[in-house]
Amino acid sequence: MSNSTTNIDGADCVPVWVKPVTLGDWETQIIESADLHYCLPIRAGWKTTPHITQTPLQIDHGFQGVHPAESLIVSFMDKADPAADLRNWVDAFIKLTGFPILPMFQPINSPPCLLEWRDQGSCPALSDRLNVDETYLYQGLAQFSSQPAECTRLYILLARRGNVAWKISLSILSACLPEVPEDVITTNDHVRAGAIFGYLSFPFRNL
Fold this sequence. Notes:
Strand content: 35-45%
Distance between the termini: 39 Å
Strand order of the largest sheet: 1-7-8-9-10-6-5-4
Structural class: alpha+beta
Helix content: 10-25%
Radius of gyration: 16 Å
CATH topology of the domain at 2-13 and 50-102 and 109-182: Protein Transport Mog1p, Chain A
C-alpha cells in the first residue's frame, strides 16, 4: 500500500473533490438531518433512509449505494474534545483494523484491501467555507472484491465546530486503475466526489 501526507493551505489549494461541481451524467439528491446537523447530496438512486447505528461515542447514518461497495456514512460526535487530535478518529481506526472505514457491506470471504492512502492534512479555506474550527481530508483507493479491475475510491472529511464533530466517509466505484496519473483520477473520480462534498454544509441549528 502506498501512503503520502500533504498539508493544504489557501483557497487555491482546496482539493477538487471538495469543490462544488454539477455533472449532467451523475445526478444527485439531497439528504439532511436535524439531529446530526448535516446537509449534502448523494448519488441519485442511492437509499435516502439511513441505516442508523450508535455507540457511546458517536452516531452513524449510513446510506447504501447501488453497488455493494458504494456508500456514504455520516458519523457525529456531540462531546468532542477541542483539545484532542481530531485525526485520531481516522488514524486510530486504521491502526486497529488496517482500513479507514467500516464498510456497510463486506463479504466474509473477501475483506477489503487498502491499495493507496493519502493524508491530505488540514484545509483552512474549507474550514472557513463550512464555518467550522478545523477540517482534515483523506482519500485513497481500495479493492472490495476479488476482481482486480474493480476498485473503489475512498474519501473522508473530518470537521469540528466547538465540541461537535463530523466524519463524512464516501466510497464510490473508481473509473481508474491504481497508479494512474492524478489528472486522470481528477477527471474520472474526484469530480464525482465534488458533486457531493462540494455542497456539504453543517447548519447551525443552535450549534
